[in-house]
Amino acid sequence: MTGVWAVIVAAGKGARMGAKVNKVLLPLRGKPVLWHAVRAFSQSPCVDGICVVAAPQEREAVWAAVKDLGKVCAVVDGGQTRQQSVLRGLHALPEGALWVMVHDGARPLVGAQLIQACAQTLLARGSAVACAPLYDTVKRARDGRIVETVDRSVLRAVQTPQCFRVGDLLAAYERAEREGIQVTDDASAMERMGGEVCLVESAECNLKITAPDDLLVAGELLRSREGGERAPRTGLGYDVHRLVPGRRLVLCGVEIPYELGLAGHSDADVAVHALIDALLGAACLGDIGRLYPDDDPAYEGIDSMKLLKDVVRRLDGYTVAHADITIVAQRPKLAGYIPRMVERIERALPGAQINVKATTTERLGFEGRGEGISAQALATIW
Ligand code: MG
């Protein structure tokens, strides 16, 4: 036992990602971003236990994302600001926790070496904050003009982990709260107390996921660290459902007004079923009927987008690069719904390029007679 605990903050809003879900829950190499961050601490011999701070409305989703990792002892509700969230995490630590490493859940690339280097500096000198030099020339600006060039050799971009004695950090944050001051990182709270804060340079990329491109960069880095240069794979999916009265017509997660709907055990979203089979084909995981049997009451009436999201979680570290879906229907006209369909699929497969097309069969065959709708999909994973 080292007495070192990690508080991992996952209560942010991620407004810059443009996604509806918290960025720490977005998939990265088949697992949530947060899972990668927590796993690094979970596997480190320097760390006794982990407390994760989540937004109250996401506590269950955060717990589901990290529960398979060892050493996670609690998921606690965060506050309105990062400062309040860290404070709640600190209050949730057990008595044996003497030292704390505060880490952003949105930094999934933190590695064993950086955690170890921070832990060593923390135990030897009482504090440790991960940082990186600045490689871009830095200017001070005002009204869109350069005021001066700043000497970058004395500047550091600070990251997390930020590590302190639990008692020191609690005292620093409680004082900031009392004085009505909000700081954006833990070191700032300690600096205000006049304490020394030691820096540890990150040897490896410790990127914070902020914009959608960051997910792509992080995915590539994780792939190369895993050492598994795997070839991209492609899968093909095909599905047909019968058109009947008294059912909803749902295609790519979008409900379309029509006098008929598709018959089936689930919501019968034939386009999503074809896409799921394409993904399962690419991952060599069988087919939709094997994973979600149509005699299982659990899947009765289920939203097929839920099944799609579940499939993405099963992709064994693969990321979906691209999917192309063709819906074959004589009626109704689908062209006007396609942008919403693309948007729904993109939301389920963040980072993937999505194309959806619709065609008729010139009144030939079962689709042409309006007896049913078919869909085909191609998907590439890598
Ligand atoms: Mg089906």
Sequence-ordered SSE layout with sheet pairings:
Elements: E1 4-10, E2 27-28, E3 31-32, H1 33-43, E4 49-54, H2 59-66, E5 72-77, H3 82-91, E6 99-104, H4 112-125, E7 127-133, E8 138-142, E9 145-150, E10 156-165, H5 166-178, H6 186-192, E11 199-201, H7 212-226, E12 233-245, E13 250-251, E14 254-255, E15 260-262, H8 270-282, H9 288-291, H10 304-313, E16 320-328, H11 338-348, E17 353-359, H12 365-368, E18 372-381
Parallel strand pairs: 1-4, 1-6, 4-5, 7-11, 16-17
Antiparallel strand pairs: 2-3, 6-10, 7-10, 8-9, 12-15, 12-18, 13-14, 16-18
Helix pairs in contact: 3-5, 5-6, 8-10
The chain binds magnesium ion.
Helical amount: 25-40%
Described by the principal axes of the CA atoms, the overall outline is: elongated
- What is the CATH C level class of the largest domain, in words? Alpha Beta
Q: And the CATH topology of the largest domain?
A: Spore Coat Polysaccharide Biosynthesis Protein SpsA, Chain A
CATH level 4 superfamily of the largest domain: Spore Coat Polysaccharide Biosynthesis Protein SpsA, Chain A
Count of discrete domains: 2
Overall mean pLDDT: 93
| Total E-strand runs | 18
CATH architecture of the largest domain: Alpha-Beta Complex
What's the N-to-C terminus distance?
A: 40 Å
- Ligands bound, unique: magnesium ion
Radius of gyration: 25 Å
Q: Provide the succession of SSEs.
A: EEEHEHEHEHEEEEHHEHEEEEHHHEHEHE
Low-confidence stretches: none
Major sheet summary line:
7 strands, mixed
Structural class: alpha/beta
Q: Main sheet: which strands, in order across?
A: 5-4-1-6-10-7-11
Number of helices: 12
Strand percentage, roughly? Answer: 25-35%
